[in-house]
# Entry
Amino acid sequence: MIEFRDLHKAFGPKVVLAGLTLTVQDRETMVIIGYSGTGKSVALKHIVGLLHPDAGDVIVDAQAVSTLDRAGLTALRRDIGYVFQSAALFDSLSVAENVALGLRRRALEEDEIAERVREALALVDLTGTEERYPAELSGGMRKRVGIARAIALRPRYLLYDEPTTGLDPVTSAVMDRLMVRAREHLGVTGVVVTHDLRSAYTVGDRIAMLFEGRIRQVATVQEIQETEDPVVRQFIEGRPA
Amino acid sequence: MIASIGRRAVEAVSAAGRWGFFVADLGRAAADVGTWSRLLVGQMRRIGVDSLPVAVFIAAFTGVVLALQASYTFTGAVPLYFVGTLVGKTMMLELGPVLTGLALAGRVGATMAAELGTMKVTEQVDALETLAYDPQSYLVLPRVLAATLMFPVIVALAILTGICTGWLTSLELLHLSTAEFVKGLKLFYLFKDTWYGLFKSATFGCTIALVGCWIGLGTYGGAEGVGRSTMRTVVYSAVLILMLDAFWAVVLL
# Structure
């Protein structure tokens, strides 16, 4: 279970999170939606300790992330797969090496690593791309390699940062299908940050809207679609203020 | 004005604090031998072998100029075989390490800052962390160790090149014999001349790599930020090399 407890974060004078409180239950996929620049990615980075909160905390499996030392953070990160908005693949490594990189930290045999790489790439429909380099891949393929790298670790939690941003509608639908497939295949708890509502409705069990640094509403997909909250309504209908 | 001074003072203290944490983290990362040792040889090849042409090119012309300037300065007053002394001493003690250091501050330091800066702004450094790697042991330590180990090798070859071109210049243009050049080269030679230059170059290598990695990992702001980091690395490295050069002269000579 992941809990955001009264999380505060500012960058200089700009307050990004102002008391974010949210609970993600085991094996559910929580989608966090909101306007650009409202701190969705910032919230996600607190889960893996990439950012340190000004106040409040994120609790993962009863551990307060901000209190963990480096060894504790490393142990926590072994249970979490993170899919970056830009895919964040390593340019100097091939697709297979990118996917295998996290596995090499787990003292696995080379045969086991090769098998997991093969399996992860098959799950994202990228079999045969093992020897290619990130520069040779399309944006959608890079994002799929990013997912493969995360799921190869067989994590308990999968975090997606804007997984469909910059993709055409068809490729976005493919990404949504992959996220659903990853959840069904691995039984993971997921947190997806996006402002792509079609994607949110497809992959989410529940949707939380982040507004002005706090959660404005948390509800099931259907409840969000039928909400009467004016702020949420305006966002999902895409109406300018 | 007072506010500006105060702001700069705060920034300086903050930078010193970050530098302290950076070096402390590096010490901690040394224990992660399994990660950095795997990457060390690759970095040694990139820093060492790939930098050789630049270092040798600079040293070759320096040797020529040194021989000709020595002959010009000595005309009539000092025996010409002292050309060998001046070429040898100057290449070993000063120009070999410093010119190579300054040239590699541009080549090696700037490359490190640009590479790590790009990784930082494209979230690759964050990705490393989420894969349970410590960026210090994966990115920084192999580069710092490789630069510290390889700079003396590069500088040794640069010194040899400079002395060789100085000797060839003496033979062809100054009509000095090999025996006379070698006589001058051996005159006043101390073993300290050799280790002093090589030791100094190891400290230059370490400094350039530390500065390149520190500034690279502190990059923000996209392509413009990467450019800024690259420029700062070259400037800071050059300044630090000259300061270190003076420091070692005071302490060791």
Residues 90-154 of chain A form one domain.
